[in-house]
């Protein structure tokens, strides 16, 4: 058994490396064979594979052929942080296909399968739901064709099962608990317990914000450590998708704690309205605050300027990357992420002496291969407007149910799409807020400590993260309101004008949820 596990792990690692290359390069779909989809509910000796995969923490996706049992194993981690698309066999097309991304040329060749409107192109692929699958191969006695029997396996890790259920013990507060939670702590008192001195729960006073901070720091440390290999002098291959908002400021500050001060950190910021976009304004303000708490660090704000009207080819390319996502909101987010991950922009470089320094804007391309992204913060900490609506309609329980729904569908709505758009640039997205230990820590915190939606925007939403920011000394970032990338970068405004004529017309049409029509070739 030990020898088998060693051989299996080597094979899994090899397959994961090949799959990563497929994601980072120009991936093509993997056609396995013509099969009939059936249900396989038993299999001797196969339980060890899902058990082993259940022990892996962090993002993964794989396709693995186990020759001894003639079984194809495939799947993605429990939260769907890596992309894997599937075309299940159907009456019209009996192939099982797995791919990291939907290639445009391949989709076009399959458009004759569906109806004349060409919508089959959009529906050919779907996000593989999270989990481990097996397909045992055998030959049909009637015609000699290969027949695959597909089974989805349960996670064997009890902690993972609990995280997937996403249940919280403390949802509705007693009046006295809520009153205590709402007591304000002056900014200066947060730093009485130095953030750099908190190394474990046993060493701190165990305030909820401190527990979350510890878990987040460890999550960033794990994701930054991989970037320390093959580094060049003065350059670290870890960057932050940076809006200057609450989530990205926390990630940047924690990344600073994890890296030697001699390394520079790239902060990637995209704008479709030059210096006037809200995210550009907050990013510049954010860099000033980061320099205040970490003056020895060389922060490089990479300003990526874009004009949507000139991105015709790029837009078509991103449409293939976001597939099977297919709304204008998906496309807007995808374009913004794709451009940000490319890291091709401008930085302000100082000229002159240190006493009388001036700056000039020079061309710069980030070479960082790892990109820290704040995905999962809003879902877990009640950062969306609909969370406040649910809370007002049904109080704490309805809020919890809405947040649970968000976390259980984040793989389908967000993560596969985002991973594909970032990976297309040869970059790897890493999600510290979706670290298993961070998720568990946040679930252990009472809901009224996570958010208090009776309070104003910028105070009660994502309350726990605002307290974390204050502990880090990020007082200005701690009061910033939530702003999604499509609005902060102003790509949504430009898209509305381009596709609907005006923002008013777009709002009347609920433009964000409108499906993009793509005629068949």
Automatic annotation (TrEMBL):
GO terms for biological process: asparagine biosynthetic process. GO terms for molecular function: asparagine synthase (glutamine-hydrolyzing) activity. The lineage of its organism: Eukaryota, Viridiplantae, Streptophyta, Embryophyta, Tracheophyta. The keyword Kinase does not apply. PANTHER family: ASPARAGINE SYNTHETASE DOMAIN-CONTAINING PROTEIN 1 (PTHR45937). It comes from the Eukaryota. InterPro entries: Asn_synthase, Asn_synthetase_domain, Ntn_hydrolases_N, Rossmann-like_a/b/a_fold. This is Asparagine synthetase domain-containing protein. It comes from Nyssa sinensis. Keywords: Amino-acid biosynthesis, Asparagine biosynthesis, Glutamine amidotransferase. Residues 231-291, 379-486 form the Asparagine synthetase domain. The keyword Amino-acid biosynthesis applies. It holds the Pfam family Asn_synthase.
């Amino acid at each position: 058994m030990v020898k088998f596990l060693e051989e299996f792990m080597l094979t899994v690692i090899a397959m994961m490396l090949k799959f990563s290359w497929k994601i980072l390069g120009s991936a093509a779909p993997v056609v396995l064979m013509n099969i009939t989809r059936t249900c396989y509910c038993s299999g001797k000796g196969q339980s060890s594979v899902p058990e082993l995969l259940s022990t892996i923490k962090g993002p993964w996706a794989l396709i693995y052929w186990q020759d001894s049992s003639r079984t194809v194993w495939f799947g993605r981690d429990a939260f769907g942080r890596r992309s894997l698309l599937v075309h299940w066999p159907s009456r019209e097309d009996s192939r099982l296909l797995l791919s990291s991304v939907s290639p445009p040329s391949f989709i076009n060749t399959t458009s004759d399968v569906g109806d004349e409107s060409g919508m089959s192109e959009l529906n050919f692929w779907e996000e593989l739901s999270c989990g481990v699958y097996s397909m045992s191969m055998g030959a049909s006695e009637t015609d000699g064709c290969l027949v695959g029997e597909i089974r989805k396996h349960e996670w064997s890790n009890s902690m993972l099962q609990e995280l997937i259920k996403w249940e919280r013990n403390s949802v509705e507060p007693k009046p006295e608990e809520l009153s205590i939670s709402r007591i304000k702590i002056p900014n200066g008192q947060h730093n009485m317990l130095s953030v750099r001195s908190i190394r474990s729960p046993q060493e701190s006073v165990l305030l909820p914000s401190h527990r979350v901070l510890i878990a987040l720091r460890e999550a960033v440390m794990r994701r930054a450590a991989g970037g320390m290999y093959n580094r060049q002098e003065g350059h670290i291959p870890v960057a932050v998708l940076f809006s200057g908002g609450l989530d990205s400021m926390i990630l940047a500050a924690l990344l600073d704690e994890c890296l030697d001060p001699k390394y520079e950190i790239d902060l990637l910021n995209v704008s479709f309205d030059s210096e006037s976009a809200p995210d550009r304004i907050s990013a510049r303000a954010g860099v000033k605050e980061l320099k205040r708490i970490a003056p020895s660090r060389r922060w490089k704000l990479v300003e990526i300027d874009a004009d949507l009207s000139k991105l015709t080819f790029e837009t078509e390319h991103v449409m293939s990357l976001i597939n099977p996502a297919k709304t204008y909101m998906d496309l807007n987010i995808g374009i913004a992420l794709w451009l940000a991950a490319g890291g091709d922009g401008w930085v302000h470089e100082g000229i002159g002496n240190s006493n009388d320094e001036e700056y000039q804007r020079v061309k710069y391309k980030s070479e960082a291969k790892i990109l820290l992204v704040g995905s999962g913060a809003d879902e877990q900490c009640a950062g969306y407007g609909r969370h406040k609506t649910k809370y007002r309609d049904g109080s704490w329980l309805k809020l919890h149910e809405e947040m649970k729904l968000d976390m259980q569908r984040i793989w389908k709505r967000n993560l596969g799409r985002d991973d594909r758009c970032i990976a297309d640039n040869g970059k790897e997205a890493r999600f510290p807020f979706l670290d298993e230990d961070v998720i568990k820590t946040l679930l252990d915190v009472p809901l009224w400590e996570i958010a208090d939606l009776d309070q104003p925007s910028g105070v009660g939403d994502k309350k726990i993260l605002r307290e974390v920011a204050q502990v880090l000394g990020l007082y200005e970032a701690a009061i910033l309101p939530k702003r999604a990338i499509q609005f902060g970068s102003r790509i949504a405004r430009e898209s509305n004008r381009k596709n609907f004529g005006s923002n008013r017309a777009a709002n009347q049409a609920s433009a964000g949820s409108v499906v993009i029509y793509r005629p068949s070739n």
